[in-house]
Design a protein that fits this description.
Blueprint lengths: L8 H25 L2 H27 L14 H29 L7 H28 L3 H30 L4 H28 L6 H14 L5 E10 L2 E10 L5 H18 L3 E9 L25 E2 L4 E2 L5
Parallel strand pairs: 2-3
Antiparallel strand pairs: 1-2, 4-5
Helix pairs in contact: 1-2, 1-4, 2-3, 2-5, 2-6, 3-5, 3-6, 4-5, 5-6, 7-8
Length: about 325
């Protein structure tokens, strides 16, 4: 496994710069128009800014190499960033809903809506470009922080498009009650975003298995090494930030030397590392004819070919009865 850490903080700085710019523009639009939906849009950008600052800290921490205290590194710090961002979104949504309900009960006339629309279009373009770039970079580097930040920015684009539509309706219809209604819809949309971010973060902190397609890749590789004298069980996978961890037991003939078992395991590791980036593979080699080799199957594992991951052995011959994995 390539243990070299990757510094992704430049993407967080880009997100911070975009947030500062869009906050300034949206705040100016709110001051000029008095539109509460534009205010709600500006509030979401404030969340983007604080989230980007948290992301910067998390990415800086995750970039530090492993040491004697954090022997597996600090890559899980990224999940805390995404969770904090999700929690902050709830706070922003609550404030938006509070202000919107007040405006719904006490309507205020709106001014300079044309300027507000122009500013919103410009901020949408900025967030769209930056969000797409950060999201693709997050996928490339398997960074949950960047993926969360990119998705949030792109969702902000959707939110702003909704606000633009609402302000446009107010401009052409004169129905100012539409402004707080749009803002309320924006608030509930933000809550939905926050729920998704927190769910993703908790899955990472709780060591959820790798995505299905990656597990399938690993299983395919293991099956390519399977034979009448080699079997596998107890496959476990997890992800910590950009790092992936794979563990599996392999049963081989007991007459093999330590060197033969080591070389065989190394071949498997090399193929997995060729298909998946930033992966650490741990393979436990066991004698296939020893019944105790089948007593350590973990409670949680990735099934091989849909079965329970267990290979029964004929205790008289010492050979597996079936090879359905």
């Amino acid at each position: 496994m390539n243990t070299e850490t990757v510094n992704l903080t430049k993407f967080a700085w880009l997100s911070i710069a975009a947030a500062v710019l869009t906050i300034s523009m949206k705040a100016a639009a709110y001051i000029l128009t008095g539109s509460v939906s534009l205010l709600s849009d500006a509030m979401e950008s404030v969340v983007n800014l604080v989230a980007a600052i948290v992301a910067l800290y998390a990415l800086t921490l995750a970039a530090k190499p492993a040491d004697s205290h954090y022997t597996f590194g600090r890559s899980k710090a990224e999940y805390f960033s995404a969770a904090i961002e999700g929690a902050m979104i709830f706070g922003a949504a609550a404030l938006i809903l509070f202000v919107s309900v007040q405006r719904l009960l006490s309507p205020v006339s709106l001014d300079n809506l044309g300027i507000g629309l122009v500013v919103s279009v410009l901020t949408t373009a900025i967030n769209g470009l930056v969000g797409y770039y950060i999201l693709e970079s997050g996928k490339k580097h398997s960074s949950p922080t960047l993926v969360a930040d990119g998705k949030h920015l792109l969702t902000d684009v959707i939110t702003t498009v909704g606000v633009i539509f609402g302000v446009f309706l107010v401009k052409i219809t004169g129905l100012e009650i539409l402004d707080p209604i749009v803002a309320i819809i924006v608030g509930f949309n933000i809550i939905w975003i926050g729920t998704g971010l927190i769910r993703t973060s908790l899955a990472g902190l709780l060591d959820a298995t790798l995505p299905e397609e990656e597990n399938h890749t690993i299983v395919t590789i293991l099956k390519s090494f399977q034979s009448e004298t080699v079997s596998f069980h107890g496959l476990q996978t997890r992800q910590a930030g950009r790092l992936r961890f794979v563990r599996v037991d392999v049963q081989v003939p007991g007459v093999w030397t330590v060197r033969e078992g080591h070389d065989f395991a190394h071949q498997i590791e090399a193929q997995i590392e060729e298909k998946l980036s930033d992966v650490s593979v741990t393979i436990h080699v066991e004698p296939i004819e020893d019944p105790t080799s089948y007593e350590d199957i973990p409670q949680g594992f990735v099934p091989l070919d849909g079965d329970d991951g267990f290979v029964p052995v004929d205790l008289e011959t010492g050979k597996p009865i079936t090879f359905q994995q």
